[in-house]
Amino acid sequence: MTAFIIISIIIVLVILALSVFTINKGYDYKHTIDPSPHPDESGADKTSDDKQ
C-alpha cells in the first residue's frame, strides 16, 4: 500500500512539473503581427470626413 501511495505522489509531481513547464513556455512565446499589405486601408491614419 505504501508503494502505491509513493508511486501516485511521484506521478502527480511529474504531471505538475510538466504543466508548469508548459505554462511557462507558453508565456515566453513572443507573438508578432505581420505588417498590413495595404497600409492605406489599415484605418490607423484615416481622418474623419464627418467634420463640418
User: Portion of residues in helices?
Assistant: 40-55%
State the end-to-end distance: 83 Å
Mean pLDDT: 83
Strand percentage lies at under 5%
How many β-strands, per DSSP? 0
Structural class: mainly alpha
- Based on CA atoms alone, the radius of gyration comes out at 26 Å
Q: Give the helix tally.
A: 1
Order of helices and strands: H
- Main beta-sheet strand count, sense and barrel state: none
Poorly predicted sequence stretches spanning 5 or more consecutive residues: none
Q: What spatial form do the alpha-carbon principal axes imply? A: rod-shaped
How would you describe what is shown here?
It is a single chain. The chain has one helix and no strands. With 52 residues, the chain is mainly alpha-helical. The radius of gyration is 26 Å and the shape is rod-shaped. The mean pLDDT is 83. The longest helix is centred in the first third of the chain and has 27 residues, at 2-28. Residues 30-52 are annotated as: Disordered. The chain crosses the membrane at residues 6-23.
